[in-house]
Amino acid sequence: MNGEYSFPILTALYSSPYAQRIMEDAMPRSRLQRGRRARDHAFEAAMEVLQSSEVKNVCMEELKSLKDAVSVFAEVWGRKEVMILDQPA
Fold it and tell me: What is the mean pLDDT of residues 11-30?
């Protein structure tokens, strides 16, 4: 699984009890025995948790802490990328 997607999911699973419950409810094993509407609702609720400030702030802080370490690898690989972490207003 791509780390860009898995890190926020793991962050949510280890966040508040509310976020953890919502994420677990959206997992495939929990969704199998429910109807389409309930599965869709569980997925939408999980997406809201992933986009919440609780999860987003943890992810952004982690990105800030890794920014310098990643730039070393970019230089080694000859890449000229810059990580911009400021969020638009």
Answer: 87
Confidence of residue 21 (pLDDT cuts 50, 70, 90): very high
> What are residue 84's phi and psi, to 5 degrees?
-105, 115
Alpha carbon 82 to its chain centroid, in Å, reads 21
Confirm if 59 and 11 have CB atoms less than 8 A apart: yes
CB 22 within 8 A of CB 49: yes
pLDDT of residue 2: 55
Query: How many CA atoms lie within 13 Å of 60's alpha carbon, on the beta-carbon side?
Result: 12
Yes or no: say if 46 and 31 are a contact pair by the CB < 8 Å rule.
Answer: no
Average pLDDT over residues 21-41: 80
Spell out the domain ranges in the chain.
Answer: 3-76
Q: How far apart are CA 65 and CA 54, in angstroms?
A: 17
